[in-house]
């Protein structure tokens, strides 16, 4: 039975991936800040598999190291890391950007991903085996108006994904990115700071991807034979041709 760590398991893509992995028999270490949601998920998924939860903010370097070090013996043999925790804060032209939003996006999406990876990679190196899935975005492939710093953070994930793959090559560790387009989660609620109207409008008039669609793809990626590494996978709703071209009739 394989063990997977999933960050950002409390909602959206991370939650759906946790559910899918549980149904497919993975042992799970689920991470996020909202402890109540983690506990609820643990209760639900424990029917299917063994679940350990870790509540921490990926921005807190010491806490990340402490929490990963605290993983009990029976969960310590980690096969899969899904670096999913992340979000956007604001959608403003660069000249109006809020510096706290910039810090949050770079600290969570880039530095948080690095801290969690730094804590998990030594165990994978020791056993010369593992699989790291970095959740990037179409925003890591192209920049769209007002997306500036969020797009920069996801371009950084794209670069880190490539760098990890190069540096870990030869150690039995697979590294790949899954880059979703518009996916209906709590992403836009966070981006627009709880403005439900604005958030809803993002997904109106077309069929957005659902978090289960991405979970399905992540499960596909981690279940390929060992010699197959899906290095970089981009997926969009059929209605979406790019970050700026969206067929609202679809
Ligand atoms: P959600 O807002 O639904 O989920 C985000 C998850 O990240 C939550 O579980 C949240 O948990 C966790 N998280 C956020 N900040 C922190 C933090 N500081 N420390 C620890 N955990 C944190 O959004 P999505 O599911 O859509 O986002 C998941 C990933 O997918 C992100 O990396 C996002 O950039 C990416 N993505 C999303 C797309 C979309 O259109 N939705 C498209 C492309 C990529 P908690 O708040 O409990 O800490
Ligand atoms: C999330 C997709 O287009 O809102 O990464 O940036 S988008």
Automatic annotation (TrEMBL):
Organism: Christiangramia sediminicola
Keyword ATP-binding: no
Swiss-Prot/TrEMBL keywords: Oxidoreductase
InterPro entries assigned to the protein according to its UniProt record, in alphabetical order: NAD(P)-bd_dom_sf (IPR036291), Sc_DH/Rdtase_CS (IPR020904), SDR_fam (IPR002347)
Stored PANTHER family: ALCOHOL DEHYDROGENASE
Family classification: Belongs to the short-chain dehydrogenases/reductases (SDR) family.
Protein name: SDR family NAD(P)-dependent oxidoreductase
UniProt entry tagged with the keyword Oxidoreductase: yes
Domain of life: Bacteria
Secretion signal, residue range per the UniProt entry: none
